[in-house]
Every structure is written in C-alpha cells, then in structure tokens.
Amino acid sequence: MVREAGLAGLVRPASAPGGETGAAGDRVLPVLPELRYLLPAGGLRRGSTIAVNPGATSVLLALLAAASRSGSWCAVVGLPTLGPAAAAELGISLDRLALVPHPGPEWPSVVAALLDGVDIVVAAPPGPVVASVSSRLAARARQRGSVLVPYARWSGADVVLESPGGSWRGLGQGRGRLQRRELTISAHGRGAAARPRGATVWLPDRTGAVACLDPDAHGSLAERTDPPMLEAVS
Fold this sequence. Notes:
Elements: E1 12-13, E2 28-29, E3 44-45, E4 50-52, H1 57-69, E5 74-77, H2 84-89, E6 97-100, H3 107-115, E7 120-123, H4 131-144, E8 147-150, E9 159-162, E10 166-171, E11 176-189, E12 197-202, E13 211-212, H5 221-224, E14 230-232
Parallel strand pairs: 4-9, 5-6, 5-7, 7-8
Antiparallel strand pairs: 1-6, 2-3, 9-11, 10-11, 10-14, 11-12, 12-13
Helix pairs in contact: 3-4
C-alpha cells in the first residue's frame, strides 16, 4: 500500500515489519481502560476524527497503545521528534507503527493515502489547517473506515482531547527523582460527545505506563506534606 501510493521514501518503520493488520470488521478499536470514559463509543470508532490538542504528546501515544497491541496498524505523520522508545514505553507495538517524520508541503495527500490502508493515522500539520482540508480528510476517514487523529486544533472533529498539563510526584525537599505524573484529560466534541467528560490518570505512572489515579495515593501523610509539585505543560 505504501509503495503503491508513492510514499516508500517517506515512511520509516519504527521497527522491522511484522504482525497482522487490524480486522476491518471491528467498528470500534480498543483504547486503554483508563481512557475509555473519554470516548462516547468506549474506543476509537472507525470513520471518526479524534483530535488531540498540541502539547499532549503522552495522551496522543496512550490513545494508540491498545489498538496497536490488538493488531491495528498506526501511522504518525509530521512528528519528527517522536521517538520509537517513547512509543514503546507507553505500550505501542513498534511492529505496527509507521512514521512519516517529514511529509513535506503535500502532507494532506500523504495523510489521505495512508487513510486508505492504515487503521489509525495521526496527522501533525505544520501550521493552521483550512476547513476545506480538514473536511476532506475527515470524509476520507469515514469512507475508508480508518480513524483520523489530528495532533492539532481541528475544526469539525468528533471528539477533542486536551490536557492543561499535570503535576509530577517524587521530589522531596529539593531531593529525589520524578516518579509519576498526575494528568487530567478533558474531552468534548459533537453529537454523542457534546457533553464534556474528564478523567484523571497517572501518565506516566511509576512504570512509565498509564494507570488509574489511586485515591489512596493522596491519603498518606508523606505525600500530603510534600512541597508544591512541579507543574508539567505536556
């Protein structure tokens, strides 16, 4: 598919090819349990556009993890700073991840071609996107049954995920190591997503993955008396 679309020179596999593509009959691709509440379908509905506002790279990667592990192919277009190590740490299968770090000025054509054969396509445009382009790519995703995930402010998205930042834990009185980050993610959109939703998770947790926020984590005297936590912006 990539070779026929003329993208062979642009696409860089995150690792050697392997695995099977996701089943086209699965109308909702899975997401991590910690993120299900944010999406009306409880996952990534084929044909939908799920936008992630810039700055929430960890949210973007976490969104792909479960679908990738279940056999779906993912492509990331226009994020040259995205490293395979960060993707793997959040659970993305590198055998099913294609990277197009530098798509060039014709990035909409690259994204459109990938939507023809890849389950989930992340698009990080180099600048503002006009409505005609966003509408055309969303229509392509609906026709092909793929999931379009713009990493940008995107008009007409079915769901928009964003996070204002988070709070890191682990530092004591000027000593220690950052261990985990408490992150609040909000979701809003149109149709079934019109009612705003929110979830607070550890992203990353102590293992580098995603975990539900443990209510008991706030109960220990040691943490409650810690100095102010570091604020993260992404």
